[in-house]
Write a structure and sequence with these properties.
33% helix; 584 residues; 6-stranded antiparallel sheet; Immunoglobulin-like; 8-stranded parallel β-barrel; alpha/beta
Length: 584
């Protein structure tokens, strides 16, 4: 009872900060309903009281995949995907982020048209839950908007509850000049309602109608969706585009105080429901803004590391690691049980906003040109002055790793493998995108059919074809999966690679190598040394990082190859990596 009373007080306190203009009676009503939902879940045995407090370790890796990434005629795609993961993907998939699986109308599932039903082609809730028998499941909570076909939008058009109070349709036409946009589409679209035309807010496009988070009942709706996720095995929840959910006149409508309080409230609720749950914020914005969801220690557990993909890409395409080294040398400190999600490729494009303040205009422009040469495209956002600015690169990570010369395949595999194992060395949780690790090229066929630039990087695979490819050990996909699984198996045994283990970049002033030191205990530390160039490099151990131990009664071991090092001079092939550890 004391715990329940503490929860009541916490919920009431946070809600009052979010909704100061609502009456005490309304706040009490919302708190009562939230507690009722929690208690109903508890009464049905839903609360995971025996859950471990350890939410991640050195073996934690995330596989990002669409529910229909693999398809077979006549079979639910979740079943086909499960077969592929169990038989071929291995320990890359300890945590599986299954991208939106609810019914939707566009944007790769992010235009949700039902908060109750899974898209029939994907399968059923049981098909989803089956994944949780062997893996941790991660799912998306799309808080900012719903599909234009969602029941709430239809109710809004008919002036019916609850939808008429859930859709954001401000009466004021002025005062929105400072809004930060992620797209170059119109900020509003006009909907014909029972009471005449209404301008509705559309942050991400005309099929995605924004929700009115000033109505606290929205919280109740999303808690019920969270409960549905938890009942079906989900433990990690990603808050999609959460930074945009609260709008105020004469502001940029981004990262508002209320947004942070809502994230805090969702964490309180989630941790009450499941002890080992994880809340992830996805905010494609400059780094300091992104970190604001981690810095307090009581909001998100994890935030996407958005500067990493474009900085790493620019490094590998130019063979210059100076910017990446400089950025790594100022890696932020995180509160306990908070972390970065480190990734290269994802279902979206390669975000560019995170480069603000990190890359000069000349190199930024050259990055765009280099991607276009490799078949990529550039998506834009609308600025406050009405002009369009580059927002993301749309290109498959495999195609991005190709060479800009006569032979596109020159060092392509080496670059790709380096980029993926580089993620494994960083402090945080590594994540891998299924089409990328299957060596998916730019999907020109799908892009030509849909005209959606992000579809360049969202290839779907026919099951028989991909299983046959993975049966061939010489195929690119097989080589990638074998290399990654071997590296992850090694990583999982090293405490130095725990997501919260200390990290230091030792090469701040270099532009060829990147050396990452992980771990606090000198006997357990790992030195990850990466040749980020297309040249063969020589590295002398005693001249560089390894003077911490003065005695000569030890040797060095390359963990990745399980080889003892007997020479002071190491040779690094182009785009190669060594994980060094002291071997007594």
């Amino acid at each position: 009872m004391l715990i329940e009373k503490d929860l009541l007080v916490t919920l009431e306190s946070i809600l009052k900060t979010i909704y100061p203009h609502h009456s005490s009676e309304k706040i009490a009503q919302v708190v009562s309903r939230l507690m009722q939902i929690i208690n109903e879940y508890s009464d049905k045995g839903g609360l995971d009281k025996g859950a471990s407090n350890q939410i991640w370790d050195s073996s934690s890796t995330v596989l990002i995949t669409y529910p229909d990434a693999i398809y077979k005629r006549g079979e639910p795609t979740l079943t086909t995907l499960s077969d592929l993961i169990d038989q071929k993907i291995g320990n890359i998939a300890k945590i599986i982020h299954i991208l939106p699986f609810l019914k939707s109308t566009s944007d790769g599932g992010f235009s949700v048209s039902s908060h109750k039903d899974i898209e029939p082609i994907f399968g059923s809730w049981n098909d989803l839950k089956n994944f949780s028998d062997k893996h941790l499941l991660m799912a998306d909570l799309v808080l900012n908007h719903v599909s234009a076909s969602h029941p709430w939008v239809h109710e809004f058009m008919q002036s019916q509850v609850p939808g008429c109070d859930y859709i954001l349709a401000p009466e004021e036409k002025e005062g929105w000049e400072n809004v930060v946009r992620p797209r170059n589409s119109s900020l509003f679209i006009s909907l014909e309602t029972k009471n005449g035309k209404r301008n509705t807010w559309t942050t991400f496009g005309p099929d995605q109608i924004d929700l009115n988070w000033k109505n606290p009942n929205i919280l109740i709706e999303f808690l019920e969706l969270i409960i549905l996720y938890l009942k079906n095995g989900v433990r990690w929840i990603r808050l999609d585009a959460v930074a945009f959910i609260w709008k105020e006149k004469e502001t940029n409508c981004l990262h508002r105080f209320e947004v942070h309080q809502i994230v805090k409230l969702l964490r309180v609720l989630l941790e009450k429901l499941v002890g080992n749950s994880v809340l992830i914020t996805e905010t494609n914005v400059p780094e300091l803004e992104n970190l604001s969801y981690l810095s307090s220690g009581d909001e998100a557990h994890v935030a996407y590391n958005f500067p990493l993909p474009p900085l790493l890409l620019e490094c590998l395409l130019t063979n210059k690691s100076d910017l990446l080294n400089r950025w790594l040398s100022s890696w932020p400190d995180f509160p306990e049980k908070t972390s970065y999600l480190n990734f290269t490729a994802s279902h979206d494009g390669i975000g560019l906003r995170a480069l603000e303040g990190l890359m000069d205009q000349e190199r930024f422009h050259q990055l765009l040109v280099s991607c276009e040469k490799r078949g990529g495209l550039i998506s834009h956002r609308r600025m406050q002055n009405g002009e369009d600015s580059p927002y993301e690169l749309n290109i498959s990570w495999w195609s991005a790793m190709s060479d800009g010369g006569v032979d596109p395949s020159c060092f392509q595999l080496q670059r790709f493998l380096l980029s993926q194992v580089f993620v494994l060395a960083l402090k945080g949780i590594p994540a891998f995108y299924l089409p990328a690790i299957l060596a998916s090229e730019n999907d020109l066929r799908t892009f030509g059919r849909t005209g959606q630039r992000r579809d360049l990087n969202r290839e779907k695979f026919e099951a028989e074809s991909i299983f046959n490819e993975l049966a061939d050990k010489r195929s690119l996909a097989s080589q990638i999966l074998n290399y990654l699984n071997s590296a992850i198996d090694i990583r999982s045994k090293e405490e130095a690679f725990h997501p919260e283990s200390p990290m230091k970049c030792l090469t701040k002033s270099r532009s060829d190598l990147i050396i990452i030191r992980r771990g606090s205990d000198s006997d357990q530390r790992i030195w990850a040394i990466h040749n980020m160039t297309n040249m063969r490099l020589t590295f002398h151990l005693t001249d560089n990082i390894l003077m911490e131990r003065q005695s000569a009664d030890y040797h060095w071991k390359d963990c990745l190859k399980n080889e003892l090092i007997t020479d002071n001079k190491l040779e690094f092939d182009p785009y190669s990596v060594k994980w060094l550890k002291i071997s007594n």
